[in-house]
Amino acid sequence: xxxxxxxxxxxxxxxxxxxxxxxxxxxxxxxxxxxxxxxxxxxxxxxxxxxxxxxxxxxxxxxxxxxxxxxxxxxxxxxxxxxxxxxxxxxxxxxxxxxxxxxxxxxxxxxxxxxxxxxxxxxxxxxxxxxxxxxxxxxxxxxxxxxxxxxxxxxxxxxxxxxxxxxxxxxxxxxxxxxxxxxxxxxxxxxxxxxxxxxxxxxxxxxxxxxxxxxxxxxxxxxxxxxxxxxxxxxxxxxxxxxxxxxxxxxxxxxxxxxxxxxxxx
Length: 266
Ligand code: BTN
Fold this sequence. Notes:
Blueprint lengths: L1 E8 L2 H11 L5 E8 L17 E9 L8 H18 L5 E4 L3 E4 L4 E11 L9 E9 L10 H4 L5 H5 L5 H17 L8 H9 L7 E6 L2 E10 L5 E5 L2 E5 L3 E6 L4 E2 L10
Parallel strand pairs: 1-2
Antiparallel strand pairs: 2-3, 3-7, 4-5, 5-6, 6-7, 8-9, 8-12, 9-10, 10-11, 12-13
Helix pairs in contact: 2-5
Bound molecules: biotin.
């Protein structure tokens, strides 16, 4: 894997896509100390000060992925496992479907994933690839984040009280992500992974809101299917959602706890 590290980039995903044109069919890793135009899901800005793990993996795909909706979930799961290895099992880690990682009893966002695709036509038909961007809030004070994000986000430093070696965390994440993208789960979650992910899903059996396109659907978070789709009980009907965002519904105030950053392009 070719690795590119820069002190400052607009966005590691954008730079990775530029590099993918130069190195078609190759796996690439792009990391930056800070991003000036970091991108979140749904076109949101992703604040990326020094001290975070900001990186993008370009992963060539030889055959089409049958269930693309499984990829963001697999990456989120890989990131959760890597973070757990680094901070230990005493801290609760959950997945906010499809791929945010939430930390602690307050379930504050500590990591997000932005998956995109490089289509074969993008570089003369030489082969397509996945562009997997990961952002983890690690060694900075969340006071550096804008007001609207600060209350719903945390960093590993705030939660654990100790600084973490960024390169070790990125290496672990890359190992887990590559194993997931190359492994048996990529065409549908195996029973073991499905079970593990389900037990780490935030707000299971609780009232949630799913934003799907322009729609906001309220229901009870029921389960996941092997394609990584979420099952929500809406009234008496079990409905499946492919992409979107889940947030917890605070019934008492009838306000949704809107996601911090967040819908992947996959
Ligand atoms: C989200 O939760 O909205 C996804 C955030 C993804 C942020 C990462 S940081 C590294 C990579 N480069 C970007 O511009 N975005 C992703």
